[in-house]
Design goal:
It contains nine helices and eleven strands. 30% of the residues lie in helices and 24% in strands. InterPro entries: GlmU-like (IPR050065), NTP_transferase_dom (IPR005835), Nucleotide-diphossugar_trans (IPR029044).
Length: 246
């Protein structure tokens, strides 16, 4: 059986929460929201989980009671840089899930489906996407005429035609570990923000000839990609979680 690991990005401060507490350890139904992400990864078969910490990393570690590894991102230089900090953990065997610690609604069931599609199709990367009525602000999944994955375009960079696309990037992925490690070495921060973007690895992996695909969520399942950036969004996530059937 192929080895499956998971990397969870949890280094950010979360200034829009208006709190000194690191965002990912704000509680959702009594547990730190990063706990639900860790649990979903393990439910999907991840044998090892690495949490990337940064802002008040000691508080984040103290709040997490799951068995995980940790890597510190000392400078906030983008999502690509965060994952690159875990390059030794990722290694070159099997596959690696990459998720954000502020998405408590993601489930092991959905991640299992993502892993299964990725392995069945022998993809270099498989993106978890969602079909939204209002896609404002999200990066768009652009497909070719045959319906195959072509690229991800950020909202601010998208043309009017691309913005009309309703399929969005969730920011959750599964990578072939060897391809991810190789592409992280090739990342550039030659952009307006001077940051290293994880999405750039997808274009690099596609360029070397590996297949890239996306698994779109629809309907109520789209709630699973919700990121929590404000206290109001945290309350909304709690309400959704309360109404789920066990």
């Amino acid at each position: 059986m192929n080895k499956l690991k998971a990397v969870i990005l949890a280094a950010g401060k979360g200034t829009r929460m208006n709190s000194d507490l690191p965002k990912v350890i704000h509680k959702c139904l009594g547990r730190p929201m990063v706990h639900y992400v860790i649990r979903a990864c393990k439910d999907a078969g991840a044998g090892e989980v690495c949490v990337i910490v940064g802002y008040k990393g000691r508080e984040v570690k103290d709040a997490i009671y799951d068995v995980v590894d940790y890597v510190e991102q000392k400078e906030q230089l983008g999502t690509g840089h965060a994952v690159k900090c875990a390059k030794d953990f990722i290694g070159t065997e099997g596959d690696t899930l990459v998720l954000c610690g502020d998405t408590p609604l993601i489930t092991g069931k959905t991640l299992t489906e993502l892993v299964e599609k990725h392995r069945k199709e022998a993809n270099g990367v498989t993106v978890l996407s969602a079909i939204l009525d209002d896609a404002t602000g999200y990066g768009r999944i652009i497909r070719d005429a045959a319906g195959n994955f072509e690229k991800i375009v950020e909202h601010k960079d998208a043309t009017e035609e691309e913005r009309a696309c309703k399929e969005v990037n969730s920011g959750m992925y599964i990578f072939n570990s060897e391809a991810l490690s190789a592409s992280l070495d090739l990342l550039s921060n030659d952009n307006a923000a001077g940051e290293y973007y994880l999405t750039d690895t997808i274009a690099l992996i596609k360029k070397i000839g590996l297949k890239v695909s996306a698994l779109p969520l629809t309907g109520d399942a789209c709630d699973e990609i919700r990121g929590v950036n404000t206290i109001d969004q945290l309350e909304e996530a709690e309400q959704i979680m309360c109404h789920r059937e066990d």
